[in-house]
User: Which sequence fits this backbone?
């Protein structure tokens, strides 16, 4: 079973997408190799639900952050080695020697490029493997019990110290090309005898690319690592939680539990409700990946997934109005919640596509019904503050708001959560400040 986050949720949070502007993936995608990028993509697509696996991955990031190392290779270097190792000149030394001899002869007679390509690929591969050996040697002194990546690095060390590669350290290659005899010998070892083992080395170095790069980003951004607990504990607490992709974002504390499993959020337009909810959802998602989070401290019980309803579009092709699209979204989430799944649910301004009376009745009824599922955590925002006055009587619903401070007739915003329900109604004031009515006189 894997962590659930559907297309709507991923788009609401802007989580995925290499080329999507300000996506969370692009924030972390500073890796140097294409294999590292593929691994990073997979991690983003498959958050974890096992607390031990989450904590182990977080510990690995923390370990490399403490080492303050830089991944020493470029994509070109690793691609050249992969391309070379994926080819073959034969399965045994005599065949390889004969094939390379033919290619060398063709290179001399008709300037065929195959033999020079083998020489270049061989040289590049030997250079990278020697550098790999040097790079991992800096971690050898670390105790295996304090070293979450110990087994992987030991695997690399054992492969590169294999007697079949005993010549690797001594080989200097001061000349432009290896002799035909050496080229055949090295090619046989690298592309036949040790090919699968060296592919393991490459894959582990792709992991190193991700772990080192993300760890360095966490240090630069002053992110921390969330601690995962079994789902039965049903709680989440975070200090100074903020949006990871907003410079100088305002931080807020969040605390939810089985006895207080819902935040009912109010505040004026532009007060920061949607940004806070996205920040919450993004950090929940990153925490389940075992990735660094934009908070000073965070602990959480693992959930099975997250659903949001923030930017629900209408569907003209299907003939759905905005309100009906909202209703269908709530219906989908209700089906998931009522099935018994442990979920995080984020609804921004429920039923804003209908009249005030229906919005009030629907918000009140749906919010109260959802809150009874104590195994789930909810944040629900609304402008229907009258519903909040009724819901605050329930002990498991926290009423929080984001305030507006008026400087004369100009509204300003603190983006800091406060207990209670907002009474701010500044819509007409903003319209008047913009001079819209005067334009229409």
Assistant:
């Amino acid at each position: 079973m894997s962590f659930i986050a559907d297309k709507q949720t991923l788009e609401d949070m802007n989580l995925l997408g290499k080329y999507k502007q300000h996506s969370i993936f692009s924030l972390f995608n500073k890796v140097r190799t294409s294999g590292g990028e593929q691994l990073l993509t997979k991690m983003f697509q498959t958050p974890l639900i096992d607390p031990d696996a989450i904590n182990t991955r977080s510990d690995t990031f923390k370990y490399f952050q403490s080492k303050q190392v830089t991944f020493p290779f470029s994509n070109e270097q690793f691609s050249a080695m992969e391309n070379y190792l994926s080819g073959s000149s034969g399965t045994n030394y005599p065949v390889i020697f004969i094939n390379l001899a033919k290619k060398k002869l063709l290179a001399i007679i008709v300037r065929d490029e195959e033999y020079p390509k083998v020489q270049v690929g061989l040289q590049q591969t030997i250079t990278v493997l020697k550098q790999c050996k040097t790079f991992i040697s800096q971690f050898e002194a670390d105790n295996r019990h304090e070293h979450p990546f110990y087994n992987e690095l030991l695997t690399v060390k054992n492969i590169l110290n294999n007697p079949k590669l005993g010549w690797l350290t001594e080989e200097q290659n001061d000349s432009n090309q290896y002799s035909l005899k050496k080229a055949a010998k090295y090619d046989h070892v690298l592309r036949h005898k040790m090919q699968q083992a060296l592919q393991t080395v490459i894959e582990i170095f792709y992991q190193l690319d991700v772990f080192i790069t993300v760890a360095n980003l966490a240090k630069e951004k002053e992110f921390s690592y969330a601690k995962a607990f079994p789902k039965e504990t049903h709680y989440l607490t975070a200090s100074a939680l903020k949006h990871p992709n907003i410079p100088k974002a305002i931080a807020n504390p969040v605390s939810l539990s089985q006895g207080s499993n819902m935040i009912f959020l109010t505040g004026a337009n532009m007060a920061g409700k949607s940004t806070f909810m996205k920040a919450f959802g993004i950090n929940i998602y990153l925490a389940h990946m075992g990735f660094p989070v934009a908070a000073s401290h965070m602990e959480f019980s693992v959930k099975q997934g997250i659903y949001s309803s923030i930017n629900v579009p209408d569907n003209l092709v299907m003939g759905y109005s905005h309100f009906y699209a909202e209703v269908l979204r709530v219906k989908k989430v209700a089906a998931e919640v009522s099935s018994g799944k442990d979920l995080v649910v984020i609804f921004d301004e429920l039923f804003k596509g209908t009249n005030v009376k229906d919005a009030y009745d629907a918000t009140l009824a749906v919010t109260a019904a959802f809150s009874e599922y104590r195994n789930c955590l909810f944040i629900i925002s609304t402008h229907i503050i009258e519903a909040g006055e009724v819901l605050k009587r329930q002990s498991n619903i926290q009423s929080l708001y984001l305030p507006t401070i008026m400087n004369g007739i100009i509204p300003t915003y603190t983006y800091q959560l406060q207990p209670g329900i907002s009474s701010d109604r500044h819509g007409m004031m903003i319209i008047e400040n913009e001079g819209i009515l005067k334009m229409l006189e």
